[in-house]
Design a protein that fits this description.
The protein is an all-alpha fold. The chain has 2 domains: 243 residues, no CATH class; 145 residues, no CATH class. The chain has 15 helices and no strands.
Length: 471
């Protein structure tokens, strides 16, 4: 960055910039070509033999007017190009004016400081509470991990809709399968069997999911008493699930033997007397199928959240607080770094280039003065060319006249005026008043603004750091 600035400054001192000019600028008038184009000799001979212009006239004749029109037209075009070049020089001088460049840099620095301070005020109101929430959640999570001796990251929670969708599918599949088994003993046939199966399947899947979600996961707790209590609850729950499916199998056998009205009491009696003995092979299928779906439900419950109870919710609270703070931080501060860098680059470039501006401006003024002097010589050459063409025409005209030549033939032709004396040219060529800025003081002021921008940005980032910088 600094190297690029220095390179531009060196090019400026060398005068690499040049005012664009069109081809033919300040080209001399080719009098021989004009004479040929106007057929000057033949016209002078013919008009001289006819004594044109008359001796008593004071106005140039048609041929002389053509000569003057050609010469003055070229002069007018060149005058316009001179003014364009002087305007370009004025624009270049303006770009190398120390005072204007210093003012521009100061305005840029003050604007950046205003944006940084405005962001500081907004952050205090909008970002402060979110930062406190994030710090509190971060400290809470850190204390939890230390207390429970956790060094791993929390497991991602299973997707809620995916899990509940799977549980719904399990209930549906188990209900359809069990409905076929219960249909044979139900007085309502398949509809009655499915109705009974839905109730049993819902109780089976829901209770197994909850069993895996709470008691089984709480076995992972570090506290021995909590671990034992969770283990007992888990064993009781598993026994209850097995008993439920054994009851369902006996209930199916009872429905086939005594009917739906007396099946409940018969199933309970059979479960007490011989829990593992069933009358029908399909009842064993019913028992095995129920346990399979129960196992899947327990697994989904145990893996629904982090295996260590409380770790998942606390981690999610921390992540939510962190994301809220990070998003608000981005809304406030994204772009400020670019503005800061751009301003520092401009100020550093100004510190390198401003000392070179006076020399560059002097070079431009010297080029402008040389251009003006060249145009002054050009105007003299234009008058010389016009006089040569007129003299050629008048001399030939005189030699072929029988009457005296007009008196104005002896007058010396001049340009109507000098473009260099016009108000516009004088204004464009005038020396611009430069404020007497002390260069060391000016550069010290720019360095102060540069450091102030850096300090303001660093203070803002230190007070409201990004979450990645907060540990």
């Amino acid at each position: 960055m600094i190297a690029g600035v220095v390179r531009e400054a060196v090019n400026a001192v060398r005068g690499s910039e040049r005012t664009n000019t069109v081809p033919g600028f300040l080209r001399p008038i080719d009098t021989a070509a004009v004479a040929r184009q106007l057929d000057l000799e033949a016209s002078a001979v013919e008009r001289g033999r006819s004594n044109i212009p008359p001796p008593d006239t004071d106005a140039p004749d048609a041929v002389e007017q053509q000569i003057l029109q050609r010469v003055e037209s070229e002069w007018t075009w060149q005058s316009g190009e001179l003014i364009n070049n002087l305007r370009a020089y004025r624009q270049r001088l303006t770009s190398y004016a120390v005072e204007s460049e210093f003012t521009r840099l100061v305005v840029q620095a003050k604007d950046t400081l205003a944006k940084l301070r405005e962001a500081d005020h907004r952050a205090e109101a909008e970002l402060g509470p979110l930062r406190e929430d994030y710090i509190a959640a971060r400290d809470e999570l850190s204390d939890f991990k230390k207390k429970h001796r956790l060094t791993r990251a929390a497991r991602a929670r299973a997707r809620r809709y995916t899990t509940f969708g799977l549980l719904f599918v399990l209930i549906a599949l188990e209900s359809m399968a069990n409905g076929v088994f219960f249909a044979k003993g139900s007085e309502f046939g398949l509809v009655g069997g499915v109705g009974t199966a839905v109730v049993i399947s819902f109780i089976n899947v829901a209770s197994c999911f909850l069993l895996g979600l709470w008691p089984i996961r709480w076995i992972n707790r570090r506290n021995v008493l909590v671990k034992l209590f969770a283990l007992v609850l888990s064993l009781v729950g598993i026994v209850a699930i097995v008993a439920l499916h054994a009851f369902a199998a006996h209930y199916r056998d009872a429905m086939a033997v005594v009917g739906e009205d007396h099946a409940l009491s018969a199933a309970i009696a059979a479960l007490r007397a011989s829990p593992w003995t069933l009358d029908n092979l399909n009842s064993y299928y019913l028992f095995a199928l129920g346990l399979f779906f129960a196992l899947l439900s327990i697994y989904k419950g145990a893996t629904f959240d982090d295996p260590y109870p409380g770790y998942g919710p606390m981690t999610r609270r921390h992540e939510t607080a962190r994301n809220d703070y990070s998003d608000q931080h981005a809304d406030l501060f994204d772009g400020l770094a670019d503005i800061k860098d751009e301003t520092i680059t401009l100020l550093d470039g100004g510190i390198v280039k401003l000392p070179l501006y006076p020399q560059q401006a002097a070079n431009i003024r010297a080029q402008r003065a040389a251009l003006i002097q060249s145009f002054r010589s050009y105007e003299a050459a234009v008058e010389t060319a016009g006089r040569q063409l007129l003299a050629e025409y008048r001399d030939i005209n005189r030699r072929h006249r029988s009457a005296p030549a007009p008196r104005y033939f002896d007058q010396v032709w001049r340009l109507p005026h000098s473009v260099l004396e016009s108000v516009e040219v004088r204004t464009l060529a005038a020396e611009e008043a430069e404020a007497g800025l002390d260069m060391p003081t000016t550069l010290a002021e720019l360095r102060r603004y540069s450091q102030e921008v850096l300090d303001e940005y660093e203070k803002l980032m230190k007070t409201y750091p990004h979450p990645t910088k907060m540990g």
